[in-house]
Amino acid sequence: MESQPYYIGAPLWALKEWKGQFFTKTAKPAEFLQQYAQFFNAVEGNTTFYSVPSEKMVARWLESTPDTFRFSFKFPRTISHYQKLQHCDAEVTEFLKRLAPLGERLNNFMIQLPGSFSPAMLGVLEQFLRKLPKEYGYSVEVRHADFFTQPSVREQYNTLLRELGADRVIFESRPVHAAPALDQPTREAHERKPRLPVQLDTTAGAPILRYIGHPVAEENAKWLEPWAAQTVRWIEAGLTPRIFLHTPDNQQVPALARTFNTYVQARLGGVADLPSFPCESKSGLLL
C-alpha cells in the first residue's frame, strides 16, 4: 500500500465478528492485527484511550505490522478526560515512552477532549501541546459546542493549532444520527457520539476525518462520496489525509473502506486498489 496517497483505517483492529467476513475463519486474536494490516494501512488506535499497553504488547504490534503501517493512538482518558491535560507530565512521559519502540509507525497522536473542555481552557491545551516532544505529530478533537458556533473561538483555536503544527480532527456524525435507533449499537452511538457542525478547517499537514457511519452500508454513499471528493482536494493540496471509518458495531467498516477508495479512485488517477480481505483467496472463496 506504499502507493496510497492517503491513510485509511478503522477505530480498532480486534473485532471477533470480522472472522470469516474480513479475517480468515480460523484467525486467532493474536493474528488479528497482522491480518488487519494486510488490508488497512492505518488504525485509529482507540485501545490506548482506555489503558497504556504493556511492553510485550507493543513489541507484538511492531512485529505484526509492516513498516508502512501507521498507528494514530489516542492519549489515555486519564490524561485527556480525568486530568484535563493538567498535572500529568509523568503520565504523558510514560505513555510516549511505552509506545516509542513503534518508531515510524507512530503517526500523529490524537488528543480527544471531552465536551466539558471549554474554550476557557485553551491556555491549558496550549501549555500541554508546547510541552510535548517535537519528534511526534499530534491532532486534537474538541467537542464543546462553542468551538464550532462562536467564530472568534473557532479562529482562536485554529490559530493555536496552526502555530503549533497540530491537526484539527474533523468529526462527522450525521450519518449515524440519520439512522433509526433500531438496535443497541445504534442507540449507544446516538448517546455517545455528539452532533457537532462539520467544519473543514485544516491546521497542519495531515487532516483527520473520523466518520461515524450509518449502520446500513448503502445509506453511506450520500456522505462518503463528498468526503472522497474532499480527500482528493486535500491530496491535491499536498496534504496527507487520514480517514477513519466507524459504524455502530464496526462490522461494515472493511466494506465501507473498499467503497470509499473506489470513490477516491474515480476522482484521482494513480490510486491503487485496496488489497483483498484476508479471508478472500485468489479464487474468491472464503479461506
UniProtKB/TrEMBL annotation:
InterPro entries (UniProt xref): DUF72, UPF0759_sf
Pfam families xrefs: DUF72 (PF01904)
Source organism, top-level taxon: Bacteria
The protein's name in its UniProt record: DUF72 domain-containing protein
Protein species of origin: uncultured Thiotrichaceae bacterium
